[in-house]
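Input record, target 12 of the design panel.
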């Protein structure tokens, strides 16, 4: 993550949480990120989870099987 420019790190952390998944755990354990970034990452994860859950529920409501 550290080899990328700042804008790529922001996109990879907050828009597409790839860096969140792969880097924040080890970096937090090594003490390389502060509590603010860890908290923001947690909040972003929860918001994305809620958004995906709502989209999934909407998609299932409109689903009809091809065999029924």
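The sequence produced for target 12 reads:
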């Amino acid at each position: 993550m550290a080899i990328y420019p700042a804008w790529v790190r922001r996109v990879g952390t907050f828009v597409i949480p790839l860096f969140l998944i792969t880097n924040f755990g080890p970096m937090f354990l090594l003490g390389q990120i502060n509590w603010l970034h860890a908290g923001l990452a947690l909040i972003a994860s929860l918001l994305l989870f809620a958004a995906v859950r709502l989209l999934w529920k909407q998609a299932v409501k409109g689903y009809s099987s091809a065999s029924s």
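Helices lie at 6-15, 18-29, 35-61.
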